[in-house]
Design brief:
homodimer; 386 residues; alpha/beta; Rossmann fold; Dehydroquinate synthase-like, alpha domain; 2 domains; six-stranded parallel sheet; two-stranded antiparallel sheet; globular
């Protein structure tokens, strides 16, 4: 087991009818900017519940934060924060709205030339503007971590940021919000959370027995509840387990003391930036090829995953490991997720070369848990995913 | 799943040679009271490492905090805190030293008549004197939670306290400290952590799939590493998994959204108060009788535990549930822990009646997850444990 540090101060408020609790979490004299996305919260009642809870606060609204939160739109929000002397941010949405709010939390206190530096120069935020969240879409885990990913259309870039000052002060998780989520976004959420676990688990054995078992617990739970959530998103117990699994998948706990990969995300982000494919679907496209390409380095963990998560007990290590990749791809497909790039675009020619070049240009010369996945290997993996 | 709130702000610093990191965690101008137990830290090098790390701070020492931290001794430490204008507490020890330090953190800021009120009136501490810990004995989880148990010999009482202001600011967990722990204390630690999980898990199914699997993960890990730790306490990987399992067993995570029992601890505490039996051993004495007495209410969970943790797949629910109790008792015995009260004292006659009367006097009329374990039932369970 590797040395590690772990601190996660976010307060989780989980359960039925908990949105009204934000009233006691936000400081009394706060001037609040309420941030949200495309407006679905106005149809499903979450907007009204939030506004009622915010009654005693001076509140300004900023809607329209898109999936893959866009830099130029966030810069408009930053102007509102500055012009209106906002002191507290409240994100009501999924990972995109929360990630966008984290960027704003950092940008609001950033003293450099342009907030874009935070992304390109990888500037860690030690203390941002305080914010809370009301989660409307379980998937990214952003509600209980300090990281964010921001997109800039102008340059077709998608870059990560973070820092210890970017944990939400609180996050309200009411599983009842899931009832109104379109199926497309539900399957995205399941796939996203599942892949988050794989990125922190599917590496090589390092004797972190508890972390491995926790990771497997989340995978087992997602597999168990996924069909129930899709069949009936008002099934409270299934949705509650789904929601809590998504949060635990990326709140930092399971990555402590172990090597992590994240190459699937690095490649996937480029597919979103280039083709606008849903984030989760890009992960399902890349992951099977990535595991096949890196089979030798990952086969012990793949075999352990096969046995413990998929109950595959027959065959050699190689047999089990290969069967586990097949099971994973089938799982995504059964959710209705296509797992080849050509299922999403006919325009895929040259994509692998382009991604490899971007990684080379950025100096990303060794991705993955061994930091040896060079751009030429990335090119091969992406080609395998066509 | 039940509604819940979860917040745990303790920073964990885990791994080899991490004690020197306390230097950057304690505020620069702090006046530190270094608290420890019977002095074993002076033999195993932990005292020297701590003193070196504290070089830049004005530090006063208070040693001699005993197992089951004693109120009268802690009152001596409180006098030092007040007389010397201490601003920061550093606990270097196991659960007893850390629990004692939590009491002091609360008492140092308490404005009522006598700090004993904190225990008898169940006063929650919202903000105590800040403190950190260096864990020398994995067992209680006190290094990452906000609870403590304090003993008062004068009245033969052992009472719990806590509050959101009593999380350690940081805890250093260096598994290398385990090499010098006597076997008796190692087996106590394993038994304590194992029982902590059972108290939060062995109730009734409530559909909290992820919490169940996390609890089972800790139990599986403890079972796997226990013999390795006892055989060779310098086996870094085994001790690291043991240490992290103990912390995760009682840092609040696995109890969120589920019913909890804690009746085993309530009864066990009385055996420690009356006979001075090691805390963990009292749990091993009470647990099997408790589960047999409450068999009907707990058998579904017992059977799940049988299958997932002990790989017992044959037989009816009742068969599996009963076998799981046997397996648990055998596990304790294989660690070298006696599981009957008569193994510890010949003076046990009347113990059950005495404990039942104490619970009645305190108004503890319904313990356990159903709050229906009345003093007459407690009396029967303790008798079964003779």
């Amino acid at each position: 087991m590797n040395n590690f540090e772990f601190k996660n101060p976010t307060k989780i408020i989980f359960g039925k009818d908990t949105i009204d609790k934000i009233a006691t979490e936000i400081p009394e004299n706060a001037k609040v900017l309420l941030l949200y996305g495309g407006g679905s919260i106005k149809k499903n009642g979450i907007y009204d519940q939030t506004k009622t809870a915010l009654a005693k606060f001076e509140t300004i609204e900023f809607g329209g934060i898109p999936a893959n939160p866009e830099y130029s739109i966030l810069m408009d929000a930053l102007k509102v924060i500055n012009d209106e002397n906002i002191t507290y941010l409240l994100a009501v949405g999924g990972g995109s709205v929360i990630d966008g709010t984290k960027f704003l939390s950092a940008a609001a206190v950033y003293e450099g030339d342009t907030p874009w530096d935070i992304l390109t120069q990888n500037i860690k935020t030690e203390k941002g503007m305080p914010f809370g969240t009301v989660l409307t879409l379980p998937a990214t885990g952003s509600e209980m971590n300090s990281g964010a990913v921001i997109t800039r259309k102008e340059t077709q870039e998608k870059l990560a940021m973070g820092g210890p000052g970017l944990f939400p002060e609180f996050s309200v998780l009411d599983p009842q919000v899931i009832a109104s989520i379109p199926e497309r976004q539900l399957v995205n959420g399941i796939t996203d959370a599942f892949t988050h676990v794989l990125e922190q688990y599917m590496t090589y054995p390092i004797g972190a027995l508890l972390q491995d078992r926790f990771a497997e617990s989340i995978l087992q739970t997602l597999i168990e509840v996924a069909p129930k959530v899709l069949k009936d998103p008002t099934d409270y117990n299934a949705t509650a387990n789904f929601m809590w699994s998504c949060t635990m998948a990326l709140n930092g706990l399971i990555q402590k003391g172990v090597p992590t990969d994240w190459a699937v995300h690095a490649m996937g982000h480029e597919l979103t930036a280039m083709f606008g494919i849903d984030h989760a679907r890009t992960l399902a496209v890349i992951a099977p090829s990535h595991y096949k390409f890196n089979f030798k380095a990952k086969k012990e963990k793949l075999a352990q995953y096969a046995t413990r998560v998929w109950n595959i007990t027959e065959g050699s290590v190689d047999d089990k490991a290969y069967a586990a990749i097949e099971k994973t791809e089938s799982f995504f497909q059964e959710l209705g997720i296509d797992t080849k790039l050509s299922d999403y675009t006919k325009d895929y020619d040259g994509t692998a070369e382009k991604i490899a070049k971007r990684f080379t240009d950025r100096g990303w010369l060794g991705l993955g848990e061994h930091q040896n996945l060079s751009p030429d290997k990335v090119e091969e993996i992406v080609k395998m995913a066509y």
